[in-house]
Amino acid sequence: MRLTGTILLIMLVLGAARTTYAHGVDLFARVEGSNLVGSMAFADGTPVSHRPVKAFAPDGALLEETQTDEAGHFTLPIRAKVRHRLIGEAGEGHRGLYTVPEREIILVASGTERSVVAGEESGGAVEEAPVSIQSVEAVVARQLGPLRDQLHAHEKKVRLQDAIGGIGYIFGVLGLYVLLKQRFARRDSP
Amino acid sequence: MHLAEGIVTSPLVLGGGVLLAAGGVAIGLRKLDEAHALRTAVLGSGFFVASLVHIPLAGVSVHLTLTGLLGIVLGWAAFPAVLVGLVLQSVLFGFGGITTLGLNTCIMALPAVAVYYARHGLSGRPTGKMPSPWLSGLLGGLSVALSALLLGLLLCTVGEDFFPIAGAILLAHVPVMLVEAGVTASAVGFLHKVSPELLSGHALEKDPGEQESSVSCD
After folding, report:
1. Which CATH architecture has domain B11-194?
2. Which of A33, A162, B125, B217 has the CB geometry, 3.0–4.6 Å to B110, for a possible disulfide?
3. Does the predicted interface ipTM exceed a cut of 0.85?
């Protein structure tokens, strides 16, 4: 019995040590060119494959719909400069939500991306190529993409101090309840 | 096992969940005094942390709920313990949701209460008999299965067919049941050794008459 207890304790400690993620569904998307590029994963990192992802406008209208691929990635074309509310259905009561605010949405007119590429190819003639604000925004968004992903992953991490803090809250809430209960009992009894 | 926000939208179902959970929490709180607050806090913390502990098993990663153990040691007091744990999971980690708090509390706490009655019979009066680790393991696994069935039942209300969805959820939770059974059995074995009074259920019983109003789930 002492052995099972020890095993349990070791399991819990080891588990807590490698505790990093909660088991919700993590949906994330960012603008890249004329598309929303994103991924959906269970919060322990397992990708949510072949599941629908829908983008809704602020008025609730369905803008676009797609499916995640094997690795949980998806791409949705941007058709309107409005806030995109994404809902990913992971099944069995699991669902991921993410909102891309309007200020991040860039409508890239077709053709501008190509003109930038043409400018790069012609080497020294870059300054002469017509570069629109939108295409610069699109390039910057693409460059910042990996950083955004990293930041998001960091934000989603369940931190050990949160878990420890939660335990503290539980003791605090129940302690407070007992304190109040005792106080009321004392007031009623005399 | 946590029902996310926005899947069940019917106010009737959400409201029903809140009412059922509130009833359970009220019964649980009546039985909770200073003597039991500490064990409730300890097991509530266990429940809160257990779902963050991922155990990779046969290619999938599962997390525990410990609701079987909660039922064995706490009985009805599992309701407030689960509620507090779920509030914190939802606020700190985005697990489940605030509108589905009532439903999630029922999904997790009703099996715990069912485990308590499975141990003590329908009267709910503690028999004073210690549960063997084997029986506890079985009850721990069963509590996960019951939670899965309750979740399946809820998803029925949003147009899923019961048998396929409940079957899928049950199947997905077989590894959880096995691990949960193992952990519950070892935890009870450990408590046998260090703190058997936690298992007898006697200390939880203040007024046997109170227990007569046995509430069945759903």
Report:
1. Orthogonal Bundle (1.10)
2. B217
3. no
